[in-house]
Design goal:
By secondary structure, the protein is an all-alpha fold. It has one domain (2-52). The protein contains 3 helices and no strands. It has helices at 2-22, 27-39, 41-52. Helix 1 (2-22) packs antiparallel against helix 2. The radius of gyration is 11 Å and the shape is elongated.
Length: 56
Amino acid sequence: MKTILTLIILILDIIAILDVVKSSKDTVKKALWIAVIIFFPLIGMIVYFLIGQGKA
């Protein structure tokens, strides 16, 4: 069960990182969001999808 949960989080993190890369944010904001998602996989992804996605 733990392996499945880890795999799901990894897939969602990859989706979040790809969303950041495709966004219209400037390079610094992209780098910061990617760092947050990588260093805090679960929390970073959730925070990005809740507050970071809609902001330019």
